[in-house]
């Protein structure tokens, strides 16, 4: 700095700039970089230092300048960016992309420099910017009295700067001539990936990582192929972790094995990216539009669980934009244009050229030390360690299993047993082959699709079997390890292992007892000791989990033993029993239905349904589906419910199984409700009509009343409100005449909604009062507290905030207590209206945001209240102003459902407010007049 420059004091705005990617630019331009750097400095000095700025430091491609005025500093940055953008550089790729950061703070220079944390904050803000971007702190935004014409500051939210404990609100300078779209600022809390955290060390594979990294950098689609247990996922995640800095828009991991249906693959990818479904638009279109302008890597894991759907999503992503790359793991290639297939090799079993142990030996030593409490194998066991990894062909999962067994065996003992087993398999390595009889051998993790994680499945008809032989051989090598363990089991332990394969997840001891109808402790102990089953202790008791490759192996053994039908029917009976038990209280009497009781059963129930649609009873499947009726809709899984029902219908057509009319009518009725919740209104009407036709044949008046009570739903969904009201009244009268009035409860509730909608509040309240005891007497419905919800809506329409508050909080508390999440969203919206009417608009906006975020995650349609919520939000926005409403709404959208419900339940009762007249001289509140819901109010009174 020149000694003649005057340094500002007091409120000083510090500006830092540098060239993004200067090292790469210098390497690319070579000798041509120096003139570019010199011209860059000239332009910045003319526009920054030449406008009342004091240049403190110029080093390489960086500038540090102090301004006495924040507005002048922003103007200088704007001028500088425009000058850089319009300057004629030697070539377009030679244009330097300069990032700029500003912060304003109180500072006084000493000895020609500033020693202040404010300087460091400005430097961190500049480091958070991208090339061509100007970022500033909230302090600079406050002190900038005026901005150049056409310029504004875009609020980017709160960010944690590296080295600072607090969070800084950052703003982007937006103006004509400046780029506007940038990735998220590079701050300490900017998540660049969602890669799973590994709990064990990654061993070896340096050469494979280097080769795969080169492929990923050169090609947009790389598929890692290999047998189950070859380490595809672990290698892909390890590689991706080292590439985070190369993808400014992140690296995003998606586990396709967790996707329950092919149609949900795009939803799974979108969910990871934070995208929400858009009404009337395929999710894949939203996904492609988002990805088109971004530079990111998508890691799709276990694509063989949904191969066709994964291929379709990958194809659309790659065609939609050039910045997206895909790294996939699978057991089969996609056959897409541009796909590079890389087959993962086994771990090296030969010593390295430098004399170090091979990767396979290093992995076995590492895992054995962990299994033995930190004690590595004795050096005297080295020869046997090498012998073991050679016999296992260097397959990582086989080595992991071997290390687990070394808890109770020496390495020599293990090596000897492996020798014996391999010798017996020489003449019959295909002894497990494809499952005979076409039995179900699917992976229970993914009940809606395909075969499991174990390789070696029979190739499809017409496939080239010779092409599949290498993968099959690796699979059989891994199976040799499992076969050794299996052949050391006694008859009871072997049978238990086979039968446990029908469960999709961990099981507890009572479940194992139920499965065998015998004391399982002895055989279970054998399986745990031999690492065939993992025991996981919990405070409530241990659970027992089978590794997926072992589960697939045991499932094939189950088929070979001719026990599959008996075991899966037993599992189906257990699932039915568990469902029934979940709906009973401790005394065995019917309890209020809690959907939380069904959540832990979901995997097992899906596995039971899978058996029903492939080899079991469709009628039993309809019973399981019926027990999950409300759970599917309240968890945002109505589409999954519809798919299961379609498959059960197909099973009925295939087998000709006789289904009683009453059960079929109930299934069609349930299907209609699922279709309505999923927005498929034509399908909703069709199945409603089918349900009515079959119910009339059944001759059950109560059933017919329940089915007829659902006729109004599709009419409401299609906007035919007058017709829906007529139908509701007819059904109620019909049910009353036949003494089955309680079975028409759904029609009563629908009629009350319609009356509320058109402002017939007295009739609605009277109808609901009569429905309360009916709802309370029905365990499946009373947890929803629909009567209280509707009475709360009526009270809102009447302006009675006290009654609205009490009814709505009762409904919300019950819905959250019993797991009715979709319905809880409606109640949150209603409480938001109550808050707006009660003078708490910010809480109202937050609750609206929270309700919408949860509803979007559940893919739920707004239903009859949709127009009312929209009207209330519009009015609230007008009262608060766009900025305040958007901030509060955004805060609410970040809340989880439980957090939002807690906020709503914490809203102060109107009687506790300072202006409450509930217990004043008049003894009662003065009702406020409201317009009919869904219509604009005329002369609406002001909020209290």
TrEMBL record:
Pfam families: HTH_77. InterPro entries: A/G_cyclase, HTH_77, Nucleotide_cyclase, P-loop_NTPase, TPR-like_helical_dom_sf. GO terms for molecular function: adenylate cyclase activity. Residues 429-473, 916-944 are annotated as: Disordered. Residues 13-126 form the Guanylate cyclase domain. Signal peptide: none annotated. One of its GO terms (biological process) is intracellular signal transduction. SUPFAM superfamilies: Nucleotide cyclase, P-loop containing nucleoside triphosphate hydrolases, TPR-like. Residues 929-944 have a biased composition (Basic and acidic residues). PANTHER family: HTH-TYPE TRANSCRIPTIONAL REGULATOR RV0890C-RELATED (PTHR47691:SF3), REGULATOR-RELATED (PTHR47691). This is Putative ATPase.
């Amino acid at each position: 700095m020149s000694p003649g420059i005057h340094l500002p004091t007091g409120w000083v705005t510090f500006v830092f700039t540098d060239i993004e990617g200067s090292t790469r630019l210098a390497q690319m331009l070579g000798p041509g970089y120096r003139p570019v750097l010199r011209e860059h400095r000239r332009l910045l000095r003319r526009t920054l230092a030449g406008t009342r700025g004091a240049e403190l430091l110029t080093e390489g491609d960086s500038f540090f300048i102090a301004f006495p005025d924040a507005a002048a500093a922003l103007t200088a940055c704007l001028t500088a960016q425009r000058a850089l953008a319009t300057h004629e550089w030697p070539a377009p790729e030679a244009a330097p992309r300069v990032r700029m950061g500003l912060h304003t703070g109180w500072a006084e220079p000493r000895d020609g420099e500033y020693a202040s944390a404010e300087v460091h904050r400005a430097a961190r803000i500049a480091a958070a910017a991208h090339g061509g971007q100007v970022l500033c702190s909230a302090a600079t935004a406050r002190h900038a009295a005026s901005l150049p014409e056409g310029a504004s500051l875009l609020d980017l939210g709160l960010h944690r700067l590296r080295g600072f404990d607090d969070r800084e609100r950052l703003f982007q300078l937006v103006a004509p001539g400046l780029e506007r779209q940038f990735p998220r600022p590079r701050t300490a809390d900017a998540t660049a990936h969602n890669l799973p955290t590994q709990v064990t060390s990654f061993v070896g594979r340096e050469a494979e990582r280097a080769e795969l990294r080169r492929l990923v950098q050169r090609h947009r689609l790389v598929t890692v192929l290999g047998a189950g247990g070859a380490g595809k996922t672990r290698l892909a995640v390890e590689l991706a972790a080292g590439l985070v800095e190369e993808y400014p828009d992140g690296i995003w991991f998606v586990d396709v094995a967790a996707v329950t249906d092919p149609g949900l693959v795009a939803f799974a990818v979108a969910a990871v990216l934070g995208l929400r479904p858009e009404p009337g638009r395929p999710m894949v279109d939203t996904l492609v539009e988002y990805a088109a302008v971004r530079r990111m890597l998508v890691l799709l894991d276990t694509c063989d669980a949904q191969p066709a759907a994964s291929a379709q999503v990958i194809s659309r992503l790659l065609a939609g934009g050039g910045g997206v790359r895909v790294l996939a793991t699978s057991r089969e290639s996609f056959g897409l244009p541009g796909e590079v297939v890389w087959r993962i090799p086994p771990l090296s079993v030969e010593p390295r050229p430098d004399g170090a142990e091979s990767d396979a030996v290093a992995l076995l030593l590492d895992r054995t030390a962990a299994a033995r409490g930190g004690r590595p194998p004795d050096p005297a066991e080295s020869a046997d360690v090498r012998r073991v990894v050679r016999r296992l062909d260097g397959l990582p999962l086989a080595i992991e299993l071997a290390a687990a067994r070394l808890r109770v065996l020496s390495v020599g003992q293990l090596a000897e047993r492996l020798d014996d087993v391999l010798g017996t398999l020489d003449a019959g390595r295909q002894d497990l082959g494809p499952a005979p009889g076409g039995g179900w051998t699917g992976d229970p993790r993914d009940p809606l699709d395909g075969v499991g994680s174990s390789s070696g499945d029979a190739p499809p008809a017409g496939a080239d079997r010779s092409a599949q032989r290498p993968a099959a051989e690796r699979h059989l090598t891994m199976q040799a390890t499992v076969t050794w363990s299996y052949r050391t089991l006694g008859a009871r332990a072997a049978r238990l292992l086979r039968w446990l394969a029908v469960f999709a997840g961990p099981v507890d001891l009572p479940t194992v007892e139920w499965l065998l109808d015998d004391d399982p402790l002895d055989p279970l102990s054998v399986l745990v000791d031999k690492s065939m089953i993992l025991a996981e202790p919990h405070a409530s008791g241990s659970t027992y989990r089978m590794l997926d490759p072992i589960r697939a192996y045991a499932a094939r053994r189950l088929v070979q033993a001719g026990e599959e039908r008996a075991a899966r029917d037993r599992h189906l009976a257990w699932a039915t029993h568990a469902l029934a038990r979940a709906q009973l209280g401790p005394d065995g009497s019917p309890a209020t239905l809690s959907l939380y009781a069904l959540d832990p059963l979901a995997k097992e129930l899906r596995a039971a349904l899978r058996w029903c649609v492939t080899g079991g009873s469709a009628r039993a499947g309809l019973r399981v589906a019926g027990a999950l009726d409300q759970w599917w809709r309240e968890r945002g899984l109505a589409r999954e419910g519809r798919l299961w029902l379609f498959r059960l219908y197909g099973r009925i057509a295939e087998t000709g199984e006789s289904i009683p009319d009453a059960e079929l009518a109930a299934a069609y009725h349930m299907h209609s409700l699922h279709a309505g919740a999923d927005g498929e209104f034509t399908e909703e009407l069709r199945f409603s009509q089918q349900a009515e036709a079959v119910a009339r044949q059944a001759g059950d008046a109560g059933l017919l009343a329940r089915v007829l009570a659902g006729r109004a739903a599709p009419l409401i969904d299609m906007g035919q409100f007058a017709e829906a009201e007529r139908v509701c009244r007819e059904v109620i009268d019909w049910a009353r005449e036949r003494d089955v009035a309680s079975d028409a409860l759904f029609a009563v509730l629908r009629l009350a909604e319609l009356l509320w909608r058109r402002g017939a509040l007295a009739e609605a309240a009277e109808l609901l009062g009569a429905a309360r005891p009916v709802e309370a007497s029905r365990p499946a419905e009373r947890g929803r507290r629909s009567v209280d919800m509707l009475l709360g809506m009526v009270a809102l329409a009447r302006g009675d905030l006290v009654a609205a508050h009490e009814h709505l909080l009762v409904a919300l508390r019950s819905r959250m207590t019993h797991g009715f999440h979709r319905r809880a969203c409606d109640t949150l919206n209603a409480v938001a209206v109550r808050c707006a009417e009660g003078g708490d608009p910010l809480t109202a906006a937050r609750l609206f945001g929270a309700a919408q975020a949860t509803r979007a995650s559940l893919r739920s349609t707004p239903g009859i209240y949709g127009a009312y919520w929209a009207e209330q939000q519009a009015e609230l926005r007008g009262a608060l102003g766009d900025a305040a409403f958007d901030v509060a709404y955004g805060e609410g959208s970040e809340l989880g459902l439980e957090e939002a419900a807690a906020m709503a339940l914490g809203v102060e009762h109107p009687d506790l407010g300072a202006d409450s007249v509930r217990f004043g001289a008049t003894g009662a509140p003065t009702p406020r007049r409201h317009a009919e819901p869904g219509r604009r109010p005329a002369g609406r009174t002001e909020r209290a």
